[in-house]
Amino acid sequence: MLAVPEMGLQGLYSGSSPERSPVPSPPGSPRTQESCGIAPLTPSQSPKPEARAPQQAPFSVVVAIDFGTTSSGYAFSFASDPEAIHMMRKWEGGDPGVAHQKTPTCLLLTPEGAFHSFGYTARDYYHDLDPEEARDWLYFEKFKMKIHSATDLTLKTQLEAVNGKKMPALEVFAHALRFFKEHALQELRDQCPSLPEKDTVRWVLTVPAIWKQPAKQFMREAAYLAGLVSREDAEQLLIALEPEAASVYCRKLRLHQLVDLSSRAPGSGRLGERRSIDSSFRQAREQLRRSRHSRTFLVESGVGELWAEMQAGDRYVVADCGGGTVDLTVHQLEQPHGTLKELYKASGGPCGAVGVDLAFEQLLGRIFGEDFIATFKRQRPAAWVDLTIAFEARKRTAGPHRAGALNISLPFSFIDFYRKQRGHNVETALRRSSVNFVKWSSQGMLRMSCEAMNDLFQPTVSGIIQHIEALLERPEVQGVKLLFLVGGFAESAVLQHAVQAALGARGLRVVVPHDVGLTILKGAVLFGQAPGVVRVRRSPLTYGVGVLNRFVAGRHPPDKLLVRDGRRWCTDVFERFVAAEQSVALGEEVLRSYCPARPGQRRVLINLYCCAAEDARFITDPGVRKCGALSLELEPAEGGPHAADAPPSRREIRTAMQFGDTEIKVTAVDVSTNRSVRAAIDFLSN
Predict the structure, then answer these.
(1) CB-based contacts of 557: which residues, under 8 Å, 6+ apart?
(2) Is CATH 3.30.420.40 the right assignment for the domain spanning 61-241?
């Protein structure tokens, strides 16, 4: 049962100050949960946050899975030689002229919903199915973005396959992660037959930094279902933020592993003189070498040449341009060990390479009719996949200074289906359409001018540049002179040219690693070996709970007044744990003590609230929303047969929450017994 007025207030105090009652708001307020069947805990006054070094679980190898919107892969390194990163085996299949160190994020399930294949194998098998047979198979592609865009993500969220059939998203993601787990473990067994399997692997999953807590928890739940780790060994799985992983990797690079876009001659794809990076940091290097800490910094930090030439305290931006999102982070390099400090909360948005694919689909709709494209996708799903593959190959060759036109093959089934549906051929449709920059070639292909192809890029590229420019306007980012452009979409010459043209005039140096498409994957491996490398992060939101405070006339609104047992209380007060944009160190803890609301209580649930504002006063303020719940599983009280009847105020549960990691974490201890209490935060049960 919930705390009710007749319980009174006297049994619910727990070391709180006279001005704050730890009693939860009464039933009927927005934060109570009538169906939980438990009594919410009561927060007490907290001391200042403390920092505690996180404990590391033992492991022999780190396996990182870069689960991307368009392509995915894994890599690993052994604890005995952490910086020797082993890339996954080359994938079978692939497209001519396209490096396939990763595999497409494509999943194929049988008509019964059983796993069939993933990656190139799934794509090619589905492509070769008879059109009628293909309509029964479940083919998923680019489904990662569904998790980002879902506003009410839960464990029951559904994903729609290409044929329109739906399946639980958790199962879809688990199938994909299980595929990578089996491949990675088999490769490890082949390389090290003597390597024990139990407690050997630390797994790392990459997610966009702009993902909210529910999406991160969803990926963890999918990993549990896939068998990567068990809930009991949760610390063996790390969630890595993609731009952070890229930053960790870039700090290890040497000058010859980087391309400075500002040194390219206009119209060429080649580097100019070697002055690109060397000269820019020569003065900083000399200053650093003169400093009395320079030797310690250069030797102990283990950073690459570029970072050794930067001064400690220098700041830079990482722009992760992937298939689904652009993800931005700002880091500062710290002495003496080369750790990283986040200067502004992660930002970005859904401006990934799939935006170009969507623009192409809209172009086809203008030519052949949106209704026809929708019908073709539904009735000929395998042929639609074939068409998107053909476009992807041409998209990769697009460039700002390309002279020749681009030919895109239309599948025969598209041409035949259009003729049967419309009564005339595709060439006639092109002549009749208002799109004059796409023609029909004599080879039976769509012939698109380079300008037309570049136009498909513009909305997405402009969105990326706008996000970067908005970030650079922030006071915390003033003076930044270096930007790393990473991610699969950063391979695009169109994007590289546009970013350099827009930001070079601001004095920002845009640098691209040579293996730009693998930067996040390799960085995730390094992060798994040393997750403490990012020492300080910024909280993206304000988090807290609702409590009662002493009512103060003139300061508190009259409609928040609650009178109980002759005392005047202000309801729904938002007690803040951490503020949006607040710097939080790794291992720093926010402590709160709670007392069960009734004797014998075995489970406690406290609603958590969040908002983007830093100064919210009440949980009913605009923008404040319930985002999750803190749950505590209590063992029966000890101390003899009458212990359960002792006043609940004598049983104190001390919780410690950490907001400085990639996920929000919580631990709890029963103060009377000093035993751990099972504690968890659930962001998916809303």
Answers:
(1) none
(2) yes
Alpha helix ranges (H) inside 530-685: none
Q: Which of 326, 613, 253, 308 is nearest to 492 (CA)?
A: 326
Over residues 583-615, the pLDDT tens digits come to: 999 999 999 988 887 778 888 899 999 999 999
What is the per-residue pLDDT across 107-161, written as a single tens digit (0 to 9) for each?
A: 999 999 999 999 999 998 998 888 888 889 999 998 998 887 777 899 999 999 9
DSSP H/E element including 23: none
Of the candidates 608, 593, 589, the one whose C-alpha atom is nearest the C-alpha of residue 670 is 593
In order, the DSSP letters of 322-388 are: -SS-EEEEEEEE-TTT--EEEEEEEEEES-STHHHHHHHHHHHHHHH-HHHHHHHHHH-HHHHHHHH
Query: How many CB atoms lie under 10 A from the CB of residue 632?
Result: 23
Q: What is the spatial distance between Cα 393 and Cα 126, in angstroms, rounded to a whole number?
A: 18
Radius of gyration of the chain (CA): 28
- In 154-228, which residue ranges form alpha helices assigned H by DSSP? 169-191, 213-226
Angle at 242 between CA 236 and CA 244, to 5 degrees: 90
Strands, E, within 5-153: which ranges?
20-21, 50-51, 61-67, 71-78, 81-87, 103-104, 106-109, 115-118, 138-141
Q: Where in the chain is the domain with CATH 2.60.34.10?
A: 541-639+646-680
From the CB of residue 39, how many other CB atoms can be counted at a distance below 10 Å?
A: 21
What per-residue confidence (pLDDT) applies to 90? 66
Compute the half-sphere exposure of residue 623: CA atoms within 13 Å on the CB side of its CA.
Answer: 11
E strand intervals along 539-664: 542-550, 561-564, 567-578, 583-585, 588-594, 603-611, 625-633, 653-658
The DSSP secondary-structure symbol of 57 reads P
114: how many CB neighbours lie within 10 A of its CB?
9
DSSP symbol at 25: P
Give this prediction's pTM. Answer: 0.84
* C-alpha to C-alpha distance for 27 and 180, rounded to whole angstroms: 47
pLDDT category, 58, cuts 50, 70, 90? Answer: confident
Q: Which of 244-258, 280-294, 618-632 has the lowest mean pLDDT?
A: 280-294
Would the pLDDT of 46 be above 50?
no
What's CA 452's distance to the chain center, in Å?
Answer: 32
The domain made up of 541-639+646-680 is a member of CATH 2.130.10.120: no
